[in-house]
Amino acid sequence: MDVEIRELRDGLSHHLAEVRTGHILTVTDHGTPIARIVPVERPTRLEQLRAEGRVQPARRPKEPAPEPEPIQGHGSVTELIDEQRR
Description:
Blueprint: E1 2-4, H1 5-10, H2 12-20, E2 25-29, E3 32-37, H3 45-51, H4 77-85
Parallel strand pairs: 1-2
Antiparallel strand pairs: 2-3
């Protein structure tokens, strides 16, 4: 079921009651889908894939990228830019 943002705002209780009964609500902005409201009991696609064994959670958390080493320049920024333009 598709619903525009304004219609969702004006009839939020009604639309959430529909979701409670198992319906999926697609929120649109000028006809373009932007979000879905799904019942909590319904598993997400990712949860389904995990249950099927088709995907696995990461074994360890992603490590942050290393901090770049600062570059030492000589002269003012204007001089460095002029040098790069030559």
